[in-house]
Amino acid sequence: MLYVEGFEQAEALLKPQRVEVLRHLAEPSSCTEVGVRLDQTPQRVYYHVKRLVDAGLVTQVSERRVRGIVEGIYQATAKSYWLSPQLIGTIGGRRARDELSLGYLIELVEDVQQDLAKIDRTRPELPTLGVSGRIALPPAHRKEFFDELRSTLQDLFAKYGGAEGDQFTLAIAVYPKEQE
Question: Which domain of life is it from (predicted)?
Fold first, then answer.
């Protein structure tokens, strides 16, 4: 995963044709090979590959001679790309929001995304925990549930908040699931 923070990288990435080229460069390939798969000329593919190389999204991993011509072999630098919310920022600036509002939840998710992108994935021990589940909350019990959840979390923060040791962030998101 590559965390995209620069406008130049985002601009290079956010072109539908370049995204298709990137998909085909998950494994090392030449512009000719990608062109065949996308029904495009090698020159057109090379134009996009060159922009992606300049942005650091693709690298040339080798080259080979084909009928007297040197052909580059390219590969995407990551299997997935994650755009930083800071590329756009919060339109109108951040403002204090009620912790039960959708706006607050979106800002929380952006903060989590930024924190996760900064984690050193090469560390031998990377203690994380992800929990996801669905619950049904009849309108009459929503306040009771939120109060109980808030109380439980406050107890955990009080118990572990001032303790010595590694720092962790705990983020809880509760939101309605749209019916499919």
Answer: Bacteria
Who's near 61: CB < 8 A, 6+ residues apart? Answer: 28, 73, 74, 75
Q: The pTM is what?
A: 0.58
The Cα-based distances of 10 to 75, 101, 116, 127 in angstroms read 18, 29, 19, 30
> 86 — phi, psi (to 5°)?
-70, -15
The pLDDT of residue 96? 46
Res. 176: pLDDT tops 50: yes
Q: Which domains does the chain have, with CATH numbers?
A: 2-81 (1.10.10.10), 90-160 (no CATH)
Q: How far is CA 72 from the centre of its chain?
A: 29
- Burial zone of 25 (CB within 10 Å; 0-12 exposed, 13-18 middle, 19+ buried): buried
Q: What distance in Å separates the CA atoms of residue 22 and residue 78, rounded to the nearest whole number?
A: 9
Question: Rounded to an integer, what distance in angstroms lies between the CA atom of residue 119 and that of residue 39?
Answer: 39
- Distance separating alpha carbons of residues 89 and 139, to the nearest angstrom: 34
Contact (Cβ atoms closer than 8 angstroms) between residue 49 and residue 56: no
